[in-house]
């Protein structure tokens, strides 16, 4: 009896255990089937499927007028599915013959324990046709896109380039990757757990979706103008680098941006990586006198100075015990108005203005114009410039910053600031992309110009523009002067900083300006880093480049010139001549000299002696231009025959030399133009009043920091 009870208990326990185990199995199956079923099914599918991405066709990049700057062309890629290849040796041999590859290389690829391998990417269409005709098992062809830059090096730093997998690596190609890239396609290949062929295996191709296209602010024609001038700069001056940026002041749109050295995006790998960098956005350099535009803007806006305010230049300024020379030193500009300070690019004048502004007010405008911070242009590698922290600034720093030293800027920062002056004081964010369109050409998004802030008032901007116009027409920027398109601008020549000070013989020459002054259409910056050959002054080598680019761009944009086309054509037929200096000459002699020079004369006043003239001696004008002669009684104050001492005329202008000689009763026979370099009668020589002194005039030594 006891034994039976014990047996029944054990059987019951066994059934309970078995029941519990069955319940566990049922629960586990339910968990797998209903809770984790989708996840496990997906993982199982992934384990037996190879998923290979196929890059999408990237969007086209257009210039502002719809001209193609970057396109994607179709190209075929040959790939293999090794488990499906029946005769690997024979297949490798046939492919090697067509593709021009080594048999061993192909055989190694197609016998891999893999479900997918590339044989060769981006092959010629004729080659892919031959492979298709062979109908080799396990060998297939898929269409990919290949990036093409039809204009070669044109705007290479703006456009950038892509890698072998069509991902952007540089320029706008990388910053607008999401818009340009599209959605990749897929190649799906089914396999077993050992990677072997499965009968009736799944093999699918899902085509990619093309990316959006971009419409840039760049104008292809204007870009060509810029690239032409850059090539001329390289040929003439062989600089370390050169940059030209053309901006539309009202919108901040970049019409052109070019650099040397550059590269061809189609074969970027053949160029040193240093050539891929864009100096227009990353080069930190001391701007020199071009920064005086910012100093002037701040001072005029704050009421620290007016155009007629008077300054005296002794040739240098002493700040905190240190002497800062003017570029004209040891000669001085003497007494001058602020307008003349700007025309002469006078360092002591601007130093006084900077000190009068003071640290707080000066830095307010340095920051407001965008220095020491990125502009936000959609390109990789933009630098912020280098600005001394405001709390650390001393008077000597204020003095040097006011003339464009002790501060580093980037070209894109400076042209943006100059454009703000041209745009009635409104700073605009630099713009490169105008529109985004889909693959069918439909507008996806329009990118509007973006004002950043009002830096200076409209009245101050207009007042400053008038001062800068005289810098071009009468001052250090004369080589940028265009008769048909009045321009405003500023030259700059900055010695490059090096270890322990400034590097001897290393300069950056620049010119920044805009035109026409009345209604600015373009702002242009020219920067030439370390020009060779002994000429390195901004007024000499950068200003003419500005002139060439501005004139071609404004004509291309159909901007109405100040004078009519007929007048221009008539003037172009006339030769350019140098106006002789006629002050203190007898009228009849002066008129005879003008006739021989091919110039006319108009008289003001009465008398037989020339007291003054307009244009001044040394000015360049077209033949037949009338010269106004202001005549009066003879200016000689010493009776003829009286013995006088010949003065030292070195460094004097024609007018100054003529007046000095006239006051002594002497006559002048000028030769050349500029300032007195030598004279035929030595200073200190005793001669009779009425004697003629021949004076040789040469152009003044170019300024090192205008």
Automatic annotation (TrEMBL):
Domain PASTA: 573-633, 641-699
Signal peptide per UniProt: none
Any one of the GO BP annotations: cell wall organization
GO MF annotation terms: penicillin binding
Cellular localization per UniProt: Membrane
Pfam families attached to this UniProt entry: PASTA (PF03793), PBP_dimer (PF03717), Transpeptidase (PF00905)
One of the record's GO cellular component terms: plasma membrane
Top-level taxon: Bacteria
Keywords assigned by UniProt, alphabetized: Membrane
Family the entry assigns: Belongs to the transpeptidase family.
Protein name as it appears in the record: Stage V sporulation protein D
Organism, scientific name: Thermincola ferriacetica
